[in-house]
Structure prediction request, 572 residues.
Amino acid sequence: MRRSGIICSFFLEQLRFSRILAEFFRPMAKHLKSILAVSLSTFGSRVLGLVRDSLAGFFFGTSAINSAFSWAFTLPNLFRRLVGEGALSSAFIPVLSEALEEGGRTEAFRFLNQVITRLAVSLTGTVAVLIAVILAAHGVGIYASAHGYMQLPERVYWGFDFSVVLMPYLLLVCVTAALLGALNVLGHYAVTGLSQVWLNISMIVSLGLFGMYFGKTDLERMYWQCGGVLVGGLLQVALPSITLWREGWRPRWDWTLSPRLREMMRIFLPGLLGASIYQINIVTSRCVAFGLNDSATTVLYYSQRLMELPLGMFTIAFATVMFPKISLLAAQNDRDGMARTYAQGLRLILAVTIPAALGLFALREPIVSVLYEHGKFDAQSVAEVAPVLAISALGIPFFSLATLAIRGFYAQKDMRSPVLVAKIDFFLNIGLTLVLAGPFGARGLAMANLASAIFQAFMLQRLLIHRGTALARPPIGRAAIAVGLAGVGMLAFTLAGWWALRSAFGMDKAAWLFHMRVGDVAAVIVLIPVSIIVYLIFLRLARFEEWPQLQELMELFLLRRKRTKNASSRQA
Prediction:
């Protein structure tokens, strides 16, 4: 109960911070409500995701069976990234926006039905083929082991079994992505952020309730968690469908090959790799990690999941809201509006992701300890995950910049540039993975992902300039310098604070072991909020160009709280 209270306090502090950051987005006033809706709903989803991961860590730790689940869930998750946050949505939303602009909701819903029909057919076949391949590989492994040709680790067979159970989720999540894309175009952004909430709740209930009371072994509990994934996928399809139904959509089988569908496929197929290279690199890393040892895949998974909190809350929120806006401006040939919106997005992404990356880097150990260290997730597990998190966290700003740049290319229907960068980046990541995995293990895999993220962000921006697009030279120099200086100041303060806490609670070995958790908890619930305040102060001193709007909104926020307090006093 004490641990639950600590975690709840931590998340409440972060929620308060997210509201302040929402006020920070005032320069984009007409987009603020939409970004805030996605940001907060996605934040709730990420919090539940951390609870889900913490629960899995309690039952399974960094064991082989947990690595097998992480590996098996990688392919369906890849399709979720490709579709929900990648190439299909990037190709689907601009065309759907044009359909809505030119033909109204009738034309938009007709196009939506055409897309869902083809998704259902093609992905059903894909799922069937993948299950057949997995079963065949499972059979070959058993045969080879029985005849002494090859002995595979037990985690591989568990991975095959879990993959067969989880594969239908691939179909469900891809259909969900099309539904959510339509809702985004219609302005229902909060539903998008809540999509992952239903999956996380389902998995938490399945493992924490049914798995705990009905699962007698780790394997049985893991199958309960797999069942939670499938139930969550069904909820992810059902709830957006209900919202669209209220908007007038009626699902119909439509196999028509319309000009709009041809246009979407022309954009989608070449851009599949370009939009999703980072996720493909992640999958490659997890597959290599799965072959290293029993814990490497889980270690890599937990570090990447902690990265997804700032990525999901801010980067994906920006991309989700701004991509339809940029696409619409492109359709209207408003180059100045596109450039202005894109530059605002870049400045705000830098202002949020750089301190988030530095904070995770500096406080990696206490964050991992407070969130995950219980049950079978012990101190050794923390020692394995923390350094991998430190390396991975540094990639957050670069991944965020690359994400927005790719959306900028796609809004202008330029698929060649992201694909060109993706091809080079993919082989770079493969080469670095093979070189670094052996001597450095999971840390080497994180290094390879970091290097590929830096390369992708840099090359995409260079191509924006080289191709002379409307987004070529966004005015972000002053903002980047201000954010960089404030980030360095915050990092110095945070490291000094963490050193002081370690010194205070680490007088000798026995005292350190007794007081360690106190220091960790203090770092999370005290040092993080104070570091945020320090960052804002440094941002002001660095003359961040958006500071006047931030100051005005903070004053309004304080006045609103004061009025609320006075009203409560009068009522009393």
Notes: The CA atoms of residues 144 and 249 lie 52 Å apart.
